[in-house]
Description:
Elements: H1 15-22, E1 43-46, H2 52-61, E2 66-70, H3 73-85, E3 91-95, E4 108-114, H4 123-133, E5 134-144, E6 151-153, H5 157-174, H6 183-189, E7 194-205, H7 214-226, H8 229-237, H9 242-257, E8 262-273
Amino acid sequence: MSDPPRIERPYQVDDQWSRAVFLRRTGQVASFLAPHLRAGMRLIDRGCGPGSITIDLARIVAPGEVVGIDRRQASLSDARTFARERGVANVAFEVANVYQLPFPDRSFDAAFACALLQHLAAPLAALKEIHRVLKPGGVIGIVDGSSTITFRYPRNRLLEAWDRLRALQRAYNTGRPAEPLQLRTLLRGAGFARTQASGTLTTEAGPPAGSSEETRKAAENDLIRLRGVLGGLAVAQGWATQAELEQMAEALIASGEDADAFYARPSFTAIGWISE
């Protein structure tokens, strides 16, 4: 009998940061999975947050049902409001534990997870649980941002220190190094018979003033984390002093205003199929 999954440390996310980041995400994030979805499917979106991706997935599989799960009630409240505002009725949201889904075996045709596995101490156990609730021939799509590598211009020691804090937080919460997950290996280990994977580089650039605010928005989102949960954890764990955090904040603000700034980060996708 296998050991129970390791229990994560409480992983707190600033609600303001969650709304700022996750509400910008749309079904485009799941475009790699969309060709494998069809009308009438029942799909589960794990770690759905405020539901911006979930709602677009519901449109793809309509009249099939999509169930979004998350462990934060505040996010699910946002998701329900979001669905009502957009008139999407074939979607439901529930609080659930990714290691113990409250659904019977073989109850979904498809599954999706965006930026979830990277935060789990036991990603393999979570994938085995989703395998349990998928039907034969079922498919799962994963978007993973576990790599904390960032490409910046210009670079300086303060921005590099900020990037290190992000990696330290990930390792603190999961108990493992903040490195890219071996998605295909995990999918095979969970029982998925066939897998494929790919990757992209998401970029944010600072073009001439007035034409875009990509880097400014990215800096603002980082500041929410720095002055919120991550900053508090960094001081408590001795990773940085409050004065050092303020220096990092000033560097982030400056990078967000730099018209020549460039920022890119890798993300990965994977698909797994269950045998018929």
